[in-house]
Design brief:
Its main location: membrane. Belongs to the SNAP family. It comes from Catharus ustulatus. This protein has a domain of 120 residues: Serine Threonine Protein Phosphatase 5, Tetratricopeptide repeat (Alpha Horseshoe), CATH 1.25.40.10. Helix content is 79%, strand content 0%. By secondary structure, the chain is mostly helical.
Length: 245
Amino acid sequence: AFKMAKNWSQAGAAFSRAAQLQLQLQSKHEAASLLVDAGNAFKKADPQEAVNCLLRAIEIYTDMGRFTIAAKHHVAIAEIYESDLGDIHKAIAHYEQAADYYKGEESTSSANKCLLKVAAFAAQLEQFPRAIDIYEQVGAVAMDSPLLKYSAKEHFFRAALCHFCVDMLNCKLAVQRYEEMFPAFSDCRECKLLKKLLDAHEEQNVDAFTDAVREFDSISRLEPALTALLLRVKRSIPGEEQDLR
């Protein structure tokens, strides 16, 4: 009734109380299910309380050996930290925990999805080695799978950009390595863009760098996270600061 009236806090509290009663009756599964309902209700009114309810549900599910469902709720918590509570570090921790559980249950694609979120956050926090490690691992898995082969170039592209943020030579060597591992990478637009950017960086040519990015972006839009990495690389071109002034 509270849920229908959109009275989310009271709905969450009622579900939570029902879960307590189910626990007293030793009905673990029902209790966990009600805690998830409580979490979903609280999500709309009190995100931190939603996290608390989901954590209690996860505790019951892991106790019962239901790791796939526990992983799913770790993802839900990560999303709350990411979107509602703005705590990237806690979001990362829950995506990693979810990936761990998914891996243990042989759900590789679900695990990789979580790891890619971790890599994106790591790049944002300038933890480039950590991001590179994940992108390369996921890329290597993808290139050996007929279904995922197409996405491998995207992972290697992101890894190379992270390398570029650390050091130009690192990036150059990484691109060569990816081409050897995955010959299809050589022909893709991402690889061609990287080579143009490396040349422009080497020649300290800011205009050529900007033009290459603009040309790529006009065909396939670059998402903000990639644009931020490219901007960081551009700023590392000697003389770029003077140009900006």
